[in-house]
Amino acid sequence: xxxxxxxEQTTLAERKRRAAQxxxxxxxxxxxxxxxxxxVANAPPAGFILFARNIEEPExxxxxxxxxxxxxxxxxxxxxxxxxEGGRVLRVRETAWPPMRWLGNIDDPQVTRNTASAMGxxxxxxxFNLDWAPVADVDSNPDNPVIGDRSFSRDPATVSRHVNAxxxxxxxxxxxxxxxxxxxxxxTSTDSHLELPVVDKDVGDLMECELIPFRSAVAHGVEIxxxxxxxxxxxxxxxxxxxxxxILQGWLRERMGYTGIxxxxxxxxxxxxxxxxxxxxxxxxxxxSMDLFLMCKSLDLQVEAWETLIRLAETDPAHDTLAxxxxxxxxxxxxxxxxxxxxxxxxxxxxxxxxxxFVHLLNARGRA
Length: 368
Description:
The chain is of the alpha/beta class. The protein is 45% helix and 9% strand. The chain has helices spanning 6-20, 34-42, 58-70, 100-106, 109-125, 156-172, 203-208, 211-220, 245-255, 278-287, 299-315, 317-337, 353-366; strands spanning 23-25, 47-50, 79-82, 84-86, 89-90, 130-131, 179-182, 224-227, 261-263, 293-295. Helix 6 (156-172) packs parallel to helix 8.
């Protein structure tokens, strides 16, 4: 009797594992449902993302993160992430952290670093290890409906100083940061959550504004960059940055020398979902050197994405190589930040008097 080739079986299993590891998953409600748990048991992802819909109070968040961490293998610890920027984008609200514009107005990088350390300490206490912050977009368009005071400034040099200080503050307490939204969402007049924005600037103008904070963050050692679901016709007139080889591989990796993780913005946003077939989105994004995909709510889309990534690897050897490269970058990130994490502070730090008093001072200085 002829036995099936072990290598073939191993290869399929490995493709399934790698495809799952390219996803960061979200879900509805304060607890993951049974169907979601069954899927994760079969296809352990790179990590999870929580939103306000998942959050009740700090102790519940800590227990939820512990549960999520237990759902993946110990040798591949989960990225446990949240959008905690301050201001309008604040998923945990026990401390009313101000928008980053207040810090840009104060314009003291040490204050920004101290703020990020305090915010990061609260996240660590609740079990998070990754904050989808800071925003590295320059607020260059006053009509922008989505960035505004999420940006440190309308001046790219000021944004650069504070992005790097914020990253340092998170690192001080053992939390990873992620700069977003590459190559810049600041000069748009539409919201990529709803439609596909276009930044119609020439390359020279982009280099003098949008790209400056990202180039600075790369030189500073940022480990994760999030892409923008935004069109930049001067670089690529065919697809948004998330799917663009000239933008991600050409500009971010080759011209800026970035070697870390690239993650997509949420693939359920109106700028991309339904605008292109999912297979095209994943195919072109992977070929552009995208490593991880945020899939923030729909279980059906998460399963379809996993199956599509497996199929791409089965039909094109280039996707096997791309997936292997992404897994190497993810393993390096985990080795550096997740395998020996620092001790977490007490939950008492979340919303504690020290932080609320600090916020009062930030508000008084930042609004001026």
